[in-house]
Every structure is written in C-alpha cells, then in structure tokens.
C-alpha cells in the first residue's frame, strides 16, 4: 500500500516537473518553443482526462494519504481549467492578430510602410507564433531596403513553420540583394525540395525554378558591373572620345539634332563588348533615354534610327540593358507612333526572341492595335514587312496574340510571308 502511494506520488511529482517545464516554455520569446509547449500541454491534459485519479487507492489510504492524493486531483483540475482558458485566449488573440494583419496589408498596398510594420508588430505581440505576420513584415522591410531585418523575420517564420516556402523565397531574394548568391541559392533549393515533398502546384515549382535562375542572372550582372567599374576607373580622362566624356557631352541640352546623332553614333563605335555595354549602364547612360530633354521627345527619324541602332548594340546578351531599354521613356513614347523605322523593327524582332523581354513588351503595347498595325504593313508590302512578320511570329507564343490567329486566313497569310 505504501509502495503504491509512493508510486503515485512519484508520478505526480513527475507531472509537476513536466508542467513546470511547459510553463517556462510558454513564457519563452521563441514562438517555436511557445507553439511546442502548447501542444505538450494539450497532450498532458488529454492524458490526465483519460486516466484521472485512482480513487480506489485514495479510499484505502489514511486521511493524511487521502489529502496527498486529492491534491494532484485538484491541481490537475485547475490545470485543465487553465488550459481551456488559454485555448480561448489563443482563439481571441488569433482574431485580434488577423484584424491587425488586415490593417497591415491595407497600409502596405497604400505604400504606408511604417504604418504596416506597426500593425504587423502589434499582431506579433499578441500572437508570437503567427508565421504569416513575420513574412508580411519581412516584405515591408524589403520595400524599405532593410534586408537584414527581413531575413531575421523569415528565420522566425521558419522556426514556427519549417516548411514555409514563402519565407525561404523572401529570404533568398534578400540574400540576392545583399550579393550573397550562394546562400540565396541554398534557400531556393530548400524551398524546391519542400515543394516536391508537399506536391506543390506546377506554378509554385516553376516560380522557385525561376528564382534559382535569377540567382545566376544577378551573379552575372554583379560580376559584369564590377568589371565595368574597373574599366571606367582606368579610362584616360585626357582622351575626349572615351565613354565617360562622350556621355557627358551628350547630356548637354539645347544642341542641334545633328549634334546628338553624331554623339550617339560615336557611342555605337565605343561600345563593342560586354564590358563597355555594362559600363554604359553603370555610368548612367540610360539617363539619355529617360530624362534628356531632346532625345526622349524628338520625332526626328534620323535621331530615332541612331538611338535604336545603339539599343541593338546595348542589348546583345544583356538582359538588364534590354529591360532598361524597354522601360525607357524614349521607347514608350516611340511605341505610340504609327510609323516604325527599320532599326526599330530590327530591335523589336531581336528582343522578342527572349521570354523575359517579350513579357515586358506585351505590357507596353495594346495587343489588338499593335497586331493590326503589323498586319497592315504586311498587306501593304512595306519594306519592313519581313520584320513585321517575324515580330508577329515571335510574339505568337503569347496567349493574347494567339487569339488573333484563330482566324485561319490571317494565319495562312503570315505563314506565306515567312
């Protein structure tokens, strides 16, 4: 009998140790530890409710022993009540945290980034193990260029949910911005492995694969720009026709059109390899296409021809230059015209061969009007009809363009020309 009482007491004391450890973990600053402690407390309560207290042993003991045996019963009952209260508090806290998340999302979409951070932070004070709030706040930090803070939030999200793909993706992109390309690739590969194990959608896996490819693109871009900076630092400033001096002269306002045509043609001769193409970008050469008072607005056909000739050279095997050309003020203004030059067509044909460039171009045009313009050139047997047909052929992979060619006659006409 004494042995049984001692055994029961030992079990009770063991449970007290478990409870003490769980309570300590519940007050931890680590949301992962808090989450585990909650799960362990629920398991402990479930076990207690199933086994209860052996009242046959209690009834056979002395009054002192009965008092000792009743204490565990009362304590476990209090613990169960406490757990129920905590479960209710967790439910209420989740509701409050969701409300703050919604407010944070609204502030984020309005570009009120400090306000968004404040809402997400309030939500995390209420619910420390809310993984989505960590990644949402991380995205705001990214917008502010606070990449280390964003990475820290992603790490917390992954402590809560180790298979949270979004956290790996955001962290990887931050590491790219910090030029830590190997670490970035590791994050994306981990995301890919999780996506495969969880049977994520094809779109999710493609997105991750694109991120892995982006690491290499950004690594190449960084290495090229470092080489370009070395090239520019070694330029002989006494030579008037070098890249830096030519760009400076072209940025002088209120000169004749002939002056600018001559300067751009000179750039076409200076820019002849990967290093000089990158040096143009590093040396703010794209300001010519975005903020120059004459070049961005000129309707002069000869000037436009020279600019597109330069763009063709700049975009050879350079995705970043291509992107900047397509997003330049000069190019967007030029697209509104009804007549394209031969060099413009050649430029469009070459950039439309690449998926990324083609997607940017599709965002800049009105598909129906653009296709009709190209078809009119083809019908009129214009000198640029071959370029127009090739451009249509390259764009035909896009769904918006495919719809147009549901008409068999138009498709046959295009095939005949090609």
TrEMBL record:
Q: Transmembrane ranges?
A: none
Query: A Gene Ontology CC term for this entry?
Result: centrosome
Q: Does the keyword Repressor apply?
A: no
Q: Which GO terms describe its biological process?
A: axonemal dynein complex assembly; sperm axoneme assembly
Q: What Pfam families would the database entry show?
A: TPR_1, TPR_8
Which InterPro entries does the UniProt entry name for this protein? ARM-type_fold (IPR016024), TPR-like_helical_dom_sf (IPR011990), TPR_rpt (IPR019734), TTC12 (IPR043195)
Q: Which SUPFAM superfamilies match?
A: ARM repeat (SSF48371), TPR-like (SSF48452)
Ordered alphabetically, the record's keywords are: TPR repeat
Q: Where are the TPR repeats?
A: 131-164
Work out whether the entry's keyword set contains Repressor. Answer: no
- Which PROSITE patterns does this chain map to? TPR (PS50005)
Q: Which domain of life does the UniProt lineage start with?
A: Eukaryota
Family matches, as PANTHER family: TETRATRICOPEPTIDE REPEAT PROTEIN 12
- The protein's name is Tetratricopeptide repeat protein 12
């Amino acid at each position: 009998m004494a042995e049984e009482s001692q055994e029961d007491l030992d079990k009770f004391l063991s449970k007290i140790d478990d409870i003490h450890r769980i309570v300590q973990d519940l007050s931890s600053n680590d949301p992962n530890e808090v989450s585990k402690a909650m799960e362990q407390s629920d398991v402990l309560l479930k076990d207690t409710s199933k086994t209860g207290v052996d009242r046959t042993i209690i009834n056979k003991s002395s009054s002192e022993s009965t008092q000792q045996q009743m204490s565990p019963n009362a304590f476990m009952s209090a613990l169960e009540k406490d757990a129920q209260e905590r479960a209710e508090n967790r439910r209420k806290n989740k509701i409050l945290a969701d409300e703050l998340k919604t407010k944070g999302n609204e502030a984020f979409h309005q570009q009120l980034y400090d306000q968004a951070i404040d809402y997400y932070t309030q939500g995390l004070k209420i619910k420390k193990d809310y993984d989505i709030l960590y990644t949402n706040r991380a995205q705001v930090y990214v917008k502010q260029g606070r990449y280390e803070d964003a990475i820290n939030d992603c790490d917390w999200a992954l402590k809560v949910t180790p298979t949270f793909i979004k956290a790996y993706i955001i962290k990887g992109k931050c590491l790219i911005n910090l030029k830590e390309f190997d670490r970035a690739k590791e994050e994306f590969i981990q995301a890919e492995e999780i996506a495969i194990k969880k049977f994520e959608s094809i779109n999710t896996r493609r997105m991750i694969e694109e991120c892995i490819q982006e690491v290499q693109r950004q690594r190449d871009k960084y290495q090229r720009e470092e080489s370009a900076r070395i090239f520019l630092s070694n330029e002989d400033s006494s030579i008037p026709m070098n890249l830096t001096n030519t760009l400076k002269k072209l940025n002088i306002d209120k000169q004749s059109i002939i002056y600018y045509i001559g300067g751009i043609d000179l750039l076409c001769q200076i820019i002849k390899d990967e290093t000089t193409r990158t040096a143009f970008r590093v040396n703010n050469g794209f300001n010519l296409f975005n903020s120059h008072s004459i070049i961005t607005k000129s309707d002069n056909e000869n000037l436009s021809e020279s600019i597109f000739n330069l763009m063709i050279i700049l975009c050879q095997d350079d995705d970043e230059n291509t992107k900047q050309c397509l997003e330049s003020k000069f190019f967007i203004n030029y697209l509104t015209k009804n007549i394209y030059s031969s060099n413009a067509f050649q430029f469009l044909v070459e950039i439309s061969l690449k998926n990324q460039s083609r997607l940017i171009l599709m965002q800049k045009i009105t598909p129906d009007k653009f296709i009709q313009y190209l078809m009119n050139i083809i019908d009129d047997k214009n000198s640029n009809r071959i370029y127009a047909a090739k451009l249509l052929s390259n764009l035909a992979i896009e769904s918006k363009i495919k719809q147009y060619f549901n008409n068999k006659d138009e498709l046959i006409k295009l095939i005949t020309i090609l």
